[in-house]
Input
Amino acid sequence: MRSFRYLVLAGLIGAAVTAQAAPVTYKMDPNHTQVLFSWNHFGFSNPTANLGLGEGTIVFDEKDLAKSSVDVALPLANLDTHVSALDEHLKKPDFLDADKFAVVTFKSTKVESAGGNKYKVTGDLTVHGVTKPVVLDATLNKSGMHPMMKVPTVGFDATASLKRSDFGVGAYVPNVSDEIKVRITTEASVPKAEAAK
Output
């Protein structure tokens, strides 16, 4: 009888470990996500804009990164430089042409370990109707139960560098820098309905 109980208990533990190792889907929190990009302006200043999150999903499997992915949509309607005239200018046809290309998207194609809590996230970035591969250098800040929402949560930071002219947004280069530096921070949680299952 004892051996039977041991086998049942071992099976339950094994199932629990397997369940924990499965990919987990997290929804990115727009209130705790910033997608910042900065550029150099005539050598004098380095302005920054925030592309507010529309929707974002992170699938993360620390044990099997091939099952991990990132899928993000960033509506240009949310673009914010804290200067309303600049917001409007960046949305015009000579820059992002937001009326025609209303959303920036990123869809990962590969997630690889870079050692420790560091990852390389390769994906397709679509800006201004042009899709190009981009690599994000990502850091897992924390993974665990959110103390207020009581659901599994992850937090990541990521950086990248790209040339805006590659996406057909080359106005005023080189006086306004071609290089764009991207910095991202996000929290993403398992939706409560899913976490309750």
Observations:
- The radius of gyration is 21 Å.
- The mean pLDDT is 90.
- Helices lie at 2-21, 84-90, 192-195.
- Residues 2-21 form the longest helix (20 residues).
